[in-house]
Amino acid sequence: MAAAKIKKGDSVVVRSGKDKGRTGTVLQVLPKDNKVVVAGVNIATRHRKPSQANPQGGIDRSEAPLHISKVAVADKDGKPTRVRFEERDGKKVRVAVKSGEAIDG
């Protein structure tokens, strides 16, 4: 399996869809489905009936998974960049293509 270019904790920019241009941090990566969950992006609402566990009921809002191709890692200036792998000091490191700087992850 190839190394992941987007990891949990990365700051990403949404490149397409209803949340295009919004930024957030990756909360979860789902590699089998090629999806990521980003904080504050792609909010799904669900209407809940009152129950014993939740007697008030109401509307639950939560982040839904996005396809991984819709997001790109944000560079230091906040703009999207691609990611490549380089070997630095004998270690495989993720590097931002635009700036050439190593991505902390």
Automatic annotation (TrEMBL):
KOW domain segment(s): 5-32
Protein name, entry field: Large ribosomal subunit protein uL24
Record family assignment: Belongs to the universal ribosomal protein uL24 family.
A GO CC term assigned to this protein in UniProt: ribosome
GO function term, MF aspect, one: structural constituent of ribosome
Summary of subunit composition and partner proteins: Part of the 50S ribosomal subunit.
Record's keyword terms, sorted: Ribonucleoprotein, Ribosomal protein, RNA-binding, rRNA-binding
